[in-house]
Structures are given as C-alpha cells and as structure tokens.
Amino acid sequence: MTMTDTPAQSRSLNIMLWVVAVGFFMQTLDSTIVNTALPPIARSLGESPLRMQSVIIGYSLTMAVVIPASGWLADRFGTRRIFQTAIVLFVLGSILCAAAHSLEFLVCARVVQGVGGAMLLPVGRLAVLRTFAPERYLQALSFVAIPGMIGPLIGPTLGGWLTETFSWHWVFLINVPVGIAGGIATILYMPNSKISGLGRFDMSGYLLLALFMVAISFSLDGLAELGFEHATVLMLLIASLALLVAYGLHATRKPEPLFSLELFRIHTFSVGLLGNLFARIGNGGMPFLIPLVLQVCLGYSPIEAGLMMLPTTFAGMLSKRLATNLIERHGYRRVLVGNTFFVGVMIASFALISPNLPIWLLVIQLALFGAANSIQFTGMNTITLKDLGRAGASSGNSLLSMVQMLSMSLAVTSAGALLQTFQNHLGQQQNLAGALPAFHATFICVGVITSASAWIFLQLSPERTQAARVEPASEL
C-alpha cells in the first residue's frame, strides 16, 4: 500500500492493524494472567499449588515448538488463513481451559491454546510487513507492539481481579469475545498474502528441534511433578543432547536448514542467544514463584498478589531509557555482566520474604528486580540481533523467539522442580503454610543460576560491544 490509499483502504489497513495488535495482546496476556490464579485453580481441581507449573509449561513449551513453523505455514497457506486458524485455536483452547475438570485436561487445553498463540505474533507481523509500504513499517510495527507490551504488565493484576471477583474460569473466558471479534475482522480486512513456488519445509530439522525441546523439559520436570524414576530422567537428558547434536549434523548437510549454523559464526549472536537461554532460566521463574509464595505462605488474596507485581512492572517501564544510556556509556559487556549478577542477587534476596518483612521493603525489592530485569532484556535482545544484517535477520529473530519461549518453559520447570524437591526435604508435604523454607531455598538457587550466567557475557569482546546507538528490542 502507498501513501495515496483511498479512505476505504486506509480504514481497512487501520482495522487490520488493530486485529494484529489485539491478537498480540491476547497471546502475551496469557503468558502472565494465569500466574496469580494458580492457587485457586489448584484448589478447584484438588491439586497442590506447588505442583501447578505444568499449566505454564504446557503453554510456553508449545509456543517454543510451534514458532519455527509459523512463518513457513503463512508463506504456504497465506497470512489470513493461518492468522484466522491461530485465533480459532486460541479461543478453542481458552474455552477448553475454562471447562477443565482435572489438571491433565487443563494442561492439554493449554497446549491447544499455545499452538494458536505461537502463530499470532509472527504471522500477524508478517501480514503487516506484506501489506504496508516500507516507509510505514516502523509506525505500523510500533503500533502493533504496544498492546503486546501491555499484556504481560497487566496480566497478574487482571488475573487476580477476575479470579477474586468472578472465578478463575474467567482468566481464560475473557479471550473468547475478543477472539470472536478478531476472527471476523480477520476474514473481512486481512489480505491472504502467500508466496508461490515456496521451497520444502525442513521437517526433519524441525522434528529434531521439537523433540529436543520436549525431551529436555520433561527431564527437568521428571523428578518433581511427573514423578519419573531417576533412570528415566537420565535417559531423557541423554536423548535431548543427542537430538540437539543430530540437528547440528543435519544442518551442516541440508542446503536450506530450518536454522543455519552460519548464524553462530556471528559472535554477538552466539553469546546473546546463550545468554538469553541461561539468564532467563534463572529470572524467568519469578513471575511464577512470587505470586505463589505470597498466596500460599503469606495469605495474600489473588488480587493482592497481582497488585504486588505492579512495582516490578512500573520500575521496568521507567528503566527503559536508563538501559539505553547505560549501554551507550559503558558498552554491552560491562552492563550485561554487572546487571546479570545484580539480577541474581535480587532474586536471592527474596529469600528474606516472611510474614514479618515490612511491605515497603518488599515493594522496594520488587521494584529493583523489575528495573534490573528490564535492563537485562533490553541488553540481551539487542546484542543478539544487532550484527545479523538483513540476510540473517529473519532467521535469527525466529531462533531468538524460539529460545525465549523455551527458556520460559525451562525456567518454570526448574523453579517448580526445585520447589518440590526442597518441600520434600525442608517442609511437610501436606502443610502448605510450612512451605516458606522451600521457597527461600528455591529463590537462592534460582539467584545463583542467574548470577552464574553472567560468565556467558564475559565472552563478549569489549571492543565489539561499544555502540553509538542502541536499537529498541522486544522484551519477549
């Protein structure tokens, strides 16, 4: 489209932008809205709140698995058709979640929801890029990104309010009317752009990566929620490593692999990608742990636990400009090494949580953690993408998105496994009020994992990290 669009064309374009933005909002909202509702959901399903991490893992792991295929599917079948399919699956998954009568049913429903959610953002973004003229890309993509940033910010509070005011079912049912309206608007206003003569999808490489992600997630959760034997966990770990190596060998022989290994010749991309994976394994479990400890051990209501996440949100927003200034002044290496270590220390400091801790001190802790976490995401994402160039931008961005969702799954898996293990050794299994020592030990371990990942950013060369200007990067 050009700047000479007729009023009717401009109206259609604006409505399409709103459709994509709302789809992005629904997808990101559901990554956090369920966190404050987990204890009420557990009580309703007759489960322990300490064993509910699979509700989050099922959603984020499914997104990690499906994201690499979403672009090819849109190219092959058309952006409108795939985006509409994504909305249908997301709404169907939401309805099934609300109808869940057991934990197993709920997790399966979250998988359906995750399949739809995984396609909403990349396919929606692709539709925008193919519809708008190049001079309007930045304005259009910025508009789409704003609701996506708002979703995770209001998710915990909205989830707590819906749970307490109505019931936990509305945490999922809120997506239904929005999704129906979005699906109708997609049919009416989104072009079905596709690519003719598209090459074959690298199904072998895709299956190797998908099985790797599933195997490593199941191995980490095997001793906790799933109750696997040690031998089974060990075999899953070995299988996951074998699958990753097999993909590497496959990618060296395949003319057009799913993700080319040539990307890893770019030093900043390799370090940034590994940093994203391991640093997020540490801090990515906090949105799961904090609302849980506040409700299970300190007696907070769902909405009170959601409101306590607001200092993290606001401090993260306010620190955006600070992140840019710090990196431009000190370089990526120094900022990421120091900030990663500080994030780990802040996570470990939550081991001080107790009924006697003044609420003002807890608010300060949450605000400092939110500010440091925001700086971390900005630095990690920007260093990963900044040297890719136009040729590798699409593939590198898709790989980063997959790793981010995988790390979110592994973060909650690891936090849940640690919590369950410490509860078995430090607390009474049936006494949730006595679970505070288990939370304390988990916070310390997660903090150590995060601080240790600072070593990865030490591998950045100082002369390569100085930047005259830092481009904004998504926190997702």
TrEMBL record:
Signal peptide: none annotated. It is found in: Cell membrane. It is a multi-pass membrane protein. GO terms for molecular function: transmembrane transporter activity. Residues 16-465 form the Major facilitator superfamily (MFS) profile domain. Keywords: Cell membrane, Membrane, Transmembrane, Transmembrane helix, Transport. PANTHER family: BLR6921 PROTEIN, MAJOR FACILITATOR SUPERFAMILY MULTIDRUG TRANSPORTER MFSC. This is Putative transport protein HsrA. It comes from Pararobbsia alpina. The lineage of its organism: Bacteria, Pseudomonadati, Pseudomonadota, Betaproteobacteria, Burkholderiales.
